[in-house]
Amino acid sequence: MADIQEKIGKLCPEAQCDGSGEFLLINVPDAQWHALAKSLKEELHFDYLTALVGVDWKDELGVMYYLTNTDTQEIIHVKVATTDRETPRLHSVSDLWAVANYQEREVYDFFGIEFINHPDMRRFFLRNDWVGFPLRKDYDASPEKNPLRLEDEENEDNTYRLVEDENGNVTRIDGKVFEDDEYVVNVGPQHPSTHGVMRYRASIEGELVKKVDVVSGYIHRGIEKMCESLMYPQTLLYTERMDYMSAHINRHCLCLCIEKAMGLEVPHRAELIRMMMDELMRLSSHLLSYGCLTMDQGATTAFFYGFRERELIYDIFDKTCGARMSMSYLTIGGVKADVHPDFIKDVRHACDVITEKMKEYHKLFTGNVIARNRMVGVGVLSKEDAINYAITGPSGRASGHHCDVRKCHPYSLYNEVEFDEITYETGDSMDRYMVRMKEMEESIKILRQCCDMLEAEGIEGEYIAKVPKLIKLPAGHWYQQVEGSRGAFGVYLESDGNPKPFQKPYRLHFQSPCFNLVGIVDLTCKDNLIADLITITASIDYVIPDIDR
Amino acid sequence: MEVKIKSMKHDDFKDNEYIDQLVEELNASGTNVVVGKLDQLINWGISNSLWPFCFGTSCCAIEFMCLGAARYDMARFGFEVARNSPRQADYIMCQGTITYRMAPALKRLYEQMAEPKYVIACGACTVSGGPFKNSYCVVKGIDEIIPVDVYLPGCPPRPEAMFYALMQLQRKIKVQKFFGGVNRKEKRKRFFEKNGE
């Protein structure tokens, strides 16, 4: 770490390094930021922009960048801020890390920070006639300002960029999303194959897609803002309603982050149960994505097969957690109750059944001529692009990006179990599908080992640590990531340390994997048939409420 | 009068007073024999082949998919033909939060549906805004936008609960009147007069 600190000092003398936190923090003025970012990426190989978090510190508005070196897995974070609240402007890094394109639009939407040299400065989640920036601390939430409007909003065809010349003068250049002679087809927001309320505007030439404009925010519920007015245990609820297909995993992440901030030790048994729940969730999620991917290509039977096995997992959740979905089982310090006496037996049974039925899945779909023709070589994502667009999870690993958080930054008890990180090379739809199928086998492998470990611990045990009734965190910020079903899920938690009347998070940001996944729709669909847009997006497998939060 | 549907016994329902009251209201001015029989025939047809419109915005949609899959198998009751176009569907089961951005789309989809049309508000979000009630951009219950026939609480409701809601809708349809009496259209007109078109 000292080595990096020294190098950064040489690259940019204005930058202040602070190594006291969990990761190295670099404070850099906005004027030097772009040059530093360039050398961080090119010389120090921080090529993976893990998270980009906008924060309102009251006296200044700014952004936290979390950067990862994909070779050494080192993480550093950079703080860039401006004191101007009227027209806050920062320099864009979307030319260096492509993922920053949408992320910066999100920050613009929530905080009103404009990014200089960003190619397309539009709102991302909120209606384009929205007044104000909701995540600012001085946002006026009165319903008179933004009433429920029942007339459709205008298509957002106009965009602008801020261009800086050599002398540092910024000029605004207006532009169009689509040219006048382009033929634009609208898909969504209510469309059976977008897996929720997502809208694409695809410019096509003949049957070939030339450009896809993503219009998101149809299920944006403002979770991050609501969390700022809740106590820590209350915020857990929302994590399960973002990516509901990795409910336990998301909740696990926030629990880990709060525990890290509290310095709380979780009992071994509790961590084991949590990990098993995570893997069961992953299995159920991959089964669902198998079902949806097949159904989108017309194989309705395969959908029923996937759902048949999912019910087994639902039964396990139902017995132990008391609910099929949105289980609210994990909690700060452990889990809410010990597992059902049948738990180990049921998990073993489910593992056996799914292993057996996997053969059926492959027989039914993987070798199918239609499936192969529609998936092999379609929607290719190279490894460079996967890292550049921060694509993680099965979709990233299909392109050869080694990004499994369970391996790179082991959390929970993933150190104690044996499993392989599945990676493929090509990065087409077929590979993305195959990674999921193979990962299910790995999850089963983990679950079987966990069953043995849990059995060795006995039927009952300590499943929750002693947690104070009122949780107080010291001032500071923490970042925790876990491997969700669809990629690296991260939580950024900032506390101002103010304990009165009860403590609420100052800023809670969820870095959702699906938000990055939707960024590659344009890239992968380009020059493919419009019919393949459905296959490609199904193989990328995002969950819309996770994008919109 | 007892409202009978094939799928579940009358006594197994928990809120029979409501449906009895509805029947009483509808029959207050008596029923014409011929028209009444015609009504019964039509209602028998509609209530046993309710085609849902796939409208899932979040978690509840996954449970609805379970409803369509093998274990719960909604085809047993005639609900299985999930349509992707509002023009072919009988009822809209709104699964998931409706945000300010989505609200105009939901309204339009509802308007595109052909008569007779019904609405089920499925899940806490659609009933009242649910856990997102305090948000700056969530509609606090879809009954602010469109008239709702059946409210189904839960976050998300279990598939069994979804069946219960669907059967309640069947019962409501069984007693509705096409000719004379309290007309559905009039009720809806009143709703939009109150809430603004």
Quick description:
Chain A has about 550 residues and is an alpha+beta fold. Chain A has two domains: about 140 residues, NADH:ubiquinone oxidoreductase Nqo5 subunit (Beta Polymerase, domain 2, 2-Layer Sandwich), CATH 3.30.460.80; about 325 residues, Cytochrome-c3 Hydrogenase, chain B, CATH 1.10.645.
Report on this model:
The complex is a heterodimer of chains A (549) and B (197). Chain A is of the alpha+beta class and 549 residues long. Chain A is built from 18 helices and 19 strands. Chain A folds into 2 domains: 2-142, NADH:ubiquinone oxidoreductase Nqo5 subunit (Beta Polymerase, domain 2); 223-548, Cytochrome-c3 Hydrogenase, chain B (Orthogonal Bundle), CATH 1.10.645. In chain A, helix 7 runs antiparallel to helix 8 and helix 9 runs antiparallel to helix 14. Chain B has one domain (51-195): Rossmann fold (3-Layer(aba) Sandwich). In chain B, helix 2 (33-48) packs antiparallel against helix 6. The longest helix of chain B has 17 residues, at 159-175. The model of chain B has no long low-confidence stretch (mean pLDDT 82). Chains A and B meet through strand 11, strand 12, helix 4 and helix 8 of A and helix 3 and helix 4 of B.
Question: Low-confidence segments of chain B, ≥5 residues, pLDDT <50?
Answer: none
The CATH topology of the largest domain in chain A comes to Cytochrome-c3 Hydrogenase, chain B
Task: List unreliable stretches of 5+ residues of chain A.
Answer: none
Rg of chain A, nearest Å = 23 Å
Q: Which descriptor suits the 3D outline of chain A?
A: globular
- Total domain units of chain B: 1
CATH class of chain B: Alpha Beta
Number of distinct beta strands of chain A: 19
Largest interface: A-B, 48 and 41 residues
CATH class category name of the largest domain in chain A? Mainly Alpha
